[in-house]
Fold:
Amino acid sequence: MELLIARNPEDSSLPYLVLVPIGEGIVLRVKDTWPRASKIYCHRHGLPWPENPEIVESLPLRSCVQRGAAISIEVDRARESRSQFVITQARGREMIFWQSARTTKAARPNVALPTARASGLADLQFSVDTRERYAWKFTQQQVSTVKEALPVGDYGVKVHGEWAAVVERKSLEDLAGSLTTGKLRFRLEALAELPRAVVLVEDRYSSIFKLKHVRPALVADMLAECQIRYPQVPVIFAENRTLAQEWAFRFLGAAAREALEGEAAAERWAAAE
Structure:
């Protein structure tokens, strides 16, 4: 798998062509061969890759993955190895930028909404598991809730009928109990099958070492082992119930936005193939 960069045979202010190996290949016109000093503006070529292009660089890739509105690439070399092609909207028209960690602090494509809302989403609805006792009400957040049986977890968000993310809520005592009985491992295995999931603890990590009815070091070790075995499901300590609820609100909102952007971006990238 390679990222091919060739000279644009046409007389253009974007003198290079890039062939991004996604699907049948996405051909973009670009201003430079790598985003070193600043973001590079790109434009759809609108034509197939030339039959006999003048290749400037052929970069072997370790990975090339579409994540939401961005296509992330990793070049097989020690320096200048990671970058992204990001598709966004500005003044009603599509814009594509090629950027690296050095050339941008944060990329937030397709978002220009009030920051008070979770990820700028106006109509956000969370599902609360029917078995959840003393459920979060989200009275301070701009979100509605509906009761339903979740396949796993306590709170979740759907996008077009599919689970985008789930939160498993735990008190410290519940966390310690599920660790020592082995129940948490089975729950983590189920959570790991979802696109995004997290175990959210309504307490501080330091509180583990104040536990009286179980050896604190055992709980800490078992928790670490679970994180090694299931790294895709982080365990977050949110200090208290109020902050845990706010963290879940932001997490589920971000997951919903990412899923929505991913669908929209997939359609735009498909148009470039």
Summary: The mean pLDDT is 87. The longest helix spans residues 241-272. DSSP finds four helices and 14 strands in the chain. The radius of gyration is 23 Å.
